[in-house]
Amino acid sequence: MKKKKTKVQKAQIRGILISIPTVLSYLIFVISGNEFFSIITKVFLILLLLSIVNLYIEKTIYINSCDFKKVEKIQTENGCFKAAKTLDTIKGIVLHSIKGTDLKNYIDFNAELGYSSDHWNTKSNTKMPHYFIGYNKNKEIIIINTLSHSHSSFLCGKGEKGSYDLSPNGHLQVMICEPEENDEEYFDKAVFTAALQHCTVLCKTLHLSPEQIVSDKEAFEKGFAADFSSLDSWLTSNNKTMDDFRFAVKNRLKGR
Fold first, then answer.
1. Backbone phi, then psi, for 164, in 5-degree steps?
2. Which whole-number Å values give the CA distances from 196 to 90, 210, 246, in the listed order?
3. DSSP of the chain, one letter per residue?
4. Which residues are CB-contacts of 169 (< 8 A; sequence separation ≥ 6)?
5. Mean per-residue pLDDT for 222-234?
6. Could you give the percent of the chain with pLDDT greater than 70?
7. Would you kindly state where each structural domain of the chain is located, as residue ranges?
8. pLDDT tens sequence across 69-78
9. Which pLDDT value is given to residue 1?
10. Helices 7-32 and 35-63, packing angle to 10 deg
11. Which homologous superfamily is 69-253 in?
12. In what order do the strands lie in the sheet with 69-72?
């Protein structure tokens, strides 16, 4: 199925279509000296300026948009929050996955997720991502901010060169809930829609490039995490790679 053009791409096309008669009318005016074409050129220049403004607005809206609900529920009883280890700078984003799609098993948020005693919002639990992506109690995929950007998450663990949990190499940690058995529809929504859109927003607001997004396995291979490979295995099961994800983020930042 042919992918529909985004509003940004349509705005780009309008700008190109307007620029062509603008240039032509100006060239005719220069060659002929006819004042009529001078007026026409000015009209097209105004239209071109308006199309540029429209393109900027549409691109800003598109990049910052997300098809899924985002809420904040900082897990203040979690060991990461209690430790208050400061994350001074954010050098990138690490994506993880965990088996089990119900967020209530990880996050203490009864109103949105329903009750579970298995959540991670306890002092004895010393791991917590900055964001979780998974199902709420209505089986809707949502994005929940569980730890402030200034807190270290302790989710990566330590590699031979250090840890992406800690400054000066600190990364935001995003955990995507994975079904027990592969579900292509859920995968597309959770990873290549929700996580993709959210990482695009983070890249834009934190001035990060798509190349600064890595999986837990890649973080390990770079020497800044313990040996994990959950997300990459899930990606492989759906014929995708982290390069595909980064490329998609790059395109979205361009409005595609």
1. -75, 0
2. 18, 10, 9
3. -PPPPPHHHHHHHHHHHHHHHHHHHHHHHHHH--HHHHHHHHHHHHHHHHHHHHHHHHHHHHHT--SSEEEE---TTSHHHHHT-B-----EEEEEEEE--BGGGT---HHHH---TT-S-STT-----SEEEEE-TTS-EEEEE-S-TTB----S---SS--TTSTTS-EEEEEEEE-SS--HHHHHHIIIIIIHHHHHHHHHHHT--GGGEEEHHHHHHTTSS-S--HHHHHHHHTT--HHHHHHHHHHHHTT-
4. 91, 162, 163, 224
5. 91
6. 97
7. 7-63, 69-253
8. 999 999 999 9
9. 44
10. 160
11. Peptidoglycan recognition protein-like (3.40.80.10)
12. 69-72, 141-145, 131-135, 171-178, 92-99, 213-215
Q: Per the structure block, which two tokens stand in for 21?
A: 């008669």
What is the spatial distance between Cα 173 and Cα 149, in angstroms, rounded to a whole number? 9
What pLDDT sits at residue 61? Answer: 77
Identify which of 233, 163, 245 has the alpha carbon closest to the alpha carbon of residue 197.
245
Residue whose entry in the numeric block shows the structure tokens 């800690």: 166
Q: What is the pTM of this model?
A: 0.83
Please report where in the chains the tokens 């996580």 appear, as a residue. 195
What the block records as the tokens of 85 is: 């280890």
pLDDT at residue 79, rounded to an integer:
92
Q: What are phi and psi of 180, to 5 degrees?
A: -60, -40
